[in-house]
Amino acid sequence: MRIGIIGAGQLGQMLGFAARAHGYTCLFLDPSAKPPAARIGPVIQARFDDRVALAVLADKCDVLTYEFENVPVDALADVADLVPIYPPLDALRQAQDRLSEKQLFTALHIPIPEYRAIDSSDDLHDAAAAIGLPLVLKTRRLGYDGKGQFVLRSTGQVDEAWQDLGAKDLIAEQWVEFDYEASVIGVRSISGDIVTYCLTRNEHADGILRISRAPVEDAGLTEQANAHIRRLLRHLDYVGVLALELFVTGDRLLANEFAPRVHNSGHWTIEGAETSQFSNHVMAVAGAQPGPTGNRGHAGMVNLISHLPNAARQLTAGSLHDYGKTPRPGRKLGHITVVADSAAARDRLIDEICDSVTKSSSQAGTAT
Ligand code: AMP
User: Does the pLDDT at position 358 exceed 70?
Assistant: First the structure.
């Protein structure tokens, strides 16, 4: 079995490691010269919308999947009759547009923050009057890690916000005073079997995930998260891993967005779960049954962003994953996972890691 993976970044790399462990080979497609997944298998160097390259990939592989959600759907649709593509293109299409994503959540009775589609600055004035301020204004398409967003705090900023985000196709969302952010990851096989991982608590800074902790020990929230993700997976006739990002407010969850792919908030599953999200994605798209998703303890994950200091390499606590990328401000270069017997022990390890990594990062010349 050969799996074609569109995108050869760190997610492709970790999918590739999992595929290799299951005896599958991988062929990647990516525009970069030396992407992280080149460590695992050959890469066709081409743009993601290069139809000739996609046709070559489809011809050489038994199944195609992708590691990020901004793959041009139309280009992929052109090769859909040559090879199965999972997750299904319809899921990808809906995830690419925040408006259709929210309409889907609403249709499936998954609670979300109040929102309005914004097609003019007048719409934005109306949304501010109807929903109240602050509002988060987001581009409908191609946003990630908090990019393409503007927090509107006064109506005096309406024109600036509208222009700043490109003056077209936006949505305005109620600002949620959440207690914390969380995510749930689910996997569905071709035959329709579903498994889910525990609810994970996530901390972001500047729109980028910094720390994940699992499990969230709250039966009520876990039940809601499971119900929501199962409904999504079934409705989309989904195959593979799907991640649902949530805001926690009291005993309630509000959905923010879903990602039709393996997700940064599930990296802890490599060491912290019986089967990693990467293994389960690979098995699902290859037509196998998903493996068990139980926890191996209390897991935590710290992202290494902008710098990968020597201190991170020297840590005895935790497993370092170095993606082999060139350091650049804001770039995810690796992560460290810890697994402990208790939540308190896990949190102490995370504190130690953050302390040493932060200290090292603040010294000049530590990036390697
Ligand atoms: P997103 O690209 O939608 O995942 O947003 C990136 C980050 O911005 C989220 O992880 C939140 O920390 C924050 N954010 C997004 N939408 C909202 C909202 N409606 N209310 C409060 N914070 C938000």
Answer: no
Q: Do 184 and 168 fall into the same domain?
A: no
Answer yes or no: are the C-beta atoms of 61 and 83 closer than 8 Å. yes
Residue ranges making up the domain that contains 67: 2-85
> Number of structural domains, the chain?
3
22 located within any domain? yes
Say whether pLDDT at 365 is over 80.
no
The finding on whether 147 has its CB within 6 A of some atom of ligand 1 is: no
Quote the pTM value: 0.95
Q: How far does the centroid of ligand 1 lie from the alpha carbon of residue 257, in Å?
A: 9
Any ligand 1 atom below 6 A from CB of 101: no
Do 246 and 221 share a structural domain? yes
Mean pLDDT computed over every residue of the chain: 94
Our answer on whether the CB atom of 350 is closer than 6 Å to any ligand 1 atom is no
- How much distance in Å is there from the Cα of 183 to the middle of ligand 1? 13
User: Per the structure block, which two tokens stand in for 363?
Assistant: 């010294």
Do both 193 and 215 map to the same domain? Answer: yes
174, 201, 218: which is the final residue of a domain? Answer: 174
Q: Is 341 among the domain residues?
A: yes
Same domain, residue pair 122 and 54: no
- Residue 129 and residue 226 share a domain: no
Ligand 1 site-directed mutation target among 68, 70, 133, 136, most atoms within 8 Å of CB: 136
**pLDDT at 280 (0 to 100):** 98
